[in-house]
Amino acid sequence: MVGIKPTDLPPTAAVKFFGAGTAACFADLVTFPLDTAKVRLQIQGESGAAPGSAVVKYRGVFGTITTMVRTEGARSLYNGLVAGLQRQMSFASVRIGLYDSMKQFYTRGSENASIVTRLLAGCTTGAMAVAFAQPTDVVKVRFQAQVRHTDGGKRYNGTMDAYRTIARDEGVRGLWKGCMPNITRNAIVNCAELVTYDIIKDLILKYDLMTDNLPCHFTAAFSAGFCTTIVASPVDVVKTRFMNSSAGQYGSALNCALMMLTKEGPAAFYKGFMPSFLRLGSWNIVMFVSYEQIKRCVTRMQHSWESPF
To answer: Is the separation of the CB atoms in 234 and 188 below 8 Å?
Structure first.
């Protein structure tokens, strides 16, 4: 794959928007089992866990995956995949696809964006994405966390059933459960992920360490995944616990965090760290590499259509 030529046209906002959603869906397909293992490790040990979940003891990333395959079947690793793809198509399109447009909005069209401007753009698109796509995230987490009961029954029978059941039992507000901690998490994730990728890529190109090509994208994406996991894990664990909780289990996201701290100690906030890193690192690599290539491919196709001769 060759780097983009200076004479090539930059991708349009529409290409970035749909390209980000498509790349994120592809990344989810590749890394979803790691995400499911992360969720199981994060909710393990919480008070009031779902019936049957206390029977299974998860140890480590691959131990969790092995236990799930042995006790629930390989398909359990992809519980919530439909909601996950719905989430990425709507969520990533906004938080990643609109990031450059938001940077230009804050700089009034200038290409020179400061770190503060990039952070502000990341926070804005992250919050917008959560407000828009929160129901898909709630359903995804519920599916990933559900354990098949001893009688063969399950909490939800399908994606649409989950949306209906949550709305019926918890009200429409139940679909936006954990919205505030998720906004906090995604503001942090967006800033750590997009801004880190943006800055590292700019530095690599500025000092001619690599060309604007696959190795550059891989390095920047891996670094972004590591930084994101470090700063976002505590909020991510609280978000997962709160969104998966039954009605009345926690008074608020803050109450959930305080109960975790008092009952399980500070280490509880980094439960599932290794699968989080494996998942975010691999997810970032697949997503950003795919995103860069989708932008170039579609832009070149558009350019060839507009200039056939």
So the answer is: no
Return the residue matching tokens 């001619």.
Answer: 208
Distance CA 223, CA 271 (A): 21
Residue linked to tokens 């299974």: 56
CA distances from 11 to 89, 111, 211, 299 (A): 19, 14, 19, 5
**Closest C-alpha to 277, from 241, 235, 224:** 224
Place of tokens 């529409």: 14
Strand residues in the chain grouped as ranges (E)? none
Distance in angstroms between the alpha carbons of the first and the last residue of the chain: 24
Q: What is the dihedral of CA 145, 146, 148, 151, to 10 degrees?
A: 140
Q: Are 49 and 127 in contact (CB under 8 A)?
A: no
The per-residue pLDDT for range 19-50, each reduced to its tens digit, is: 999 999 999 999 999 888 888 887 876 644 44
Q: What is the distance between the alpha carbons of residues 287 and 266, in angstroms, rounded to a whole number?
A: 31
* Stated pTM of the model: 0.80
Number of H helices, E strands in the chain: 11, 0
The first and second tokens of residue 140, run together, are 């995804």
pLDDT tens for each residue of 253-268 = 889 999 999 999 998 8
